[in-house]
Amino acid sequence: MQNALIVVSSLVFYGWWDWRFLSLLLFSALVDFFVGLALQKENDRRKRKLLLAVSIFFNLGLLGFFKYFNFFIVNFKSAFTFFGYPLDISSLDIILPVGISFYTFQSLSYGIDVYRRKLEPTKDVVAFMAFVSFFPQLVAGPIERATHLLPQFSSKRYFNYEKAVDGMRLILWGFFKKIVIADNAAVYVNDIFAHYTNYSGGTLILGAVLFSFQIYCDFSGYSDIAIGLSRLFGFDLMRNFKYPYFSRNVAEFWQKWHISLTSWFRDYLYLPLGGNKGNLLFKIRNVMIVFLISGFWHGANLTFLLWGFVNALFFIPLVIIKENRLKLKVLEKETLLPSIREVFEMCSTFLIITFSWIFFRAENVKHAFLYISGILNPTNFFEIHSQSTFSDSIIPLACSLLFFITVEWISRHNEHVIHPYLFQDKWYLKLTRFALYFIILLMIILNIKNEASDFIYFQF
Known about the structure:
Layout: H1 2-15, H2 22-41, H3 45-82, H4 100-115, H5 125-133, H6 146-149, H7 161-194, H8 201-232, H9 250-256, H10 259-273, H11 280-298, H12 302-320, H13 340-361, H14 365-376, H15 395-410, H16 427-447
């Protein structure tokens, strides 16, 4: 009955956006459910491969049609027009279903794990539907594996006070990141990227930096809320972010950013391609393929492909010098401040990632390169124009960012931002803890806007 309630709630939640797309979610789930049962009974290797191909075909086929059909049609027409053979082919008015990239990968991983015999297929269709459609992480992740989440639907859940408090704390911090940081940064980012020709290089850099914080707080904020909501129901979802902007190189960043997706590509694409086996050119090829497909996963736009390509260019040198797996742990020092070398490594990594985000945020490739050329223009580089949104002070946002960075830095060794030291029974620590809750809640209330602001990753 608990699973049935979750299924009904999740279907209502998703159908509230557009009930017609419930059929896609149900079809994708049922295909993988029956493929899993068939794989369990089949021992013939050839037939097992055929069954897996059915799962991959239907899942990626639906994803490809709804997300990439028009992209290929438009570029196909452009290619023929370029060579002097214009084609009269019309694109379709296709609505992109919310969260299709997330639940498709989640359902697809089930079939692959059953094929690899890493997972026993479930015979409980209700539990499987609850796994695929689980509403907290349905539309923007984390992308859960069946090996981790599905078994949690096989046992009865009981309300756990400590887990619920932990979940509420995550939800609180998630709303802070979304409402206080991401939504306020979006005001400046949208204006700067839309009117980049009116601004100096220094302002364009500011726009790129603010977008780095916007996308991090927007996406990780959603993940925190999703994980927190799940804990209210007695579920544990995988951690999706580990303070990525404190990374000391690009490889460490990608170990700590959107962990559910990067680990998915590692296990289901990079390792099957050969991973780190083979010669150096083989490794470089595998890295490039993963980053390009990761970019394309984000959307049907050349900017995402270019974003993936740029990140691969920054990642490959670390593979060449064999430093791509040296700095995977959180900064070990227990001192309050990092060393000068660590500051330099973190700042340089942040600037590299910020540069790549320009391609991610730009409307098209031309926009991205013109934006970058504007940054490189030395004329009036440090001038901040007092027009449009910049007529309002950016100081409140700067103070919020300083508070946010400080709290995350202090909490960098912990899973959550509220330091465990504050949970001791001493009265002054309790007072400090609730004062911090009050400050965060007050900042959220003061920054709530009249118009709703969608999460960035809803479009993926």
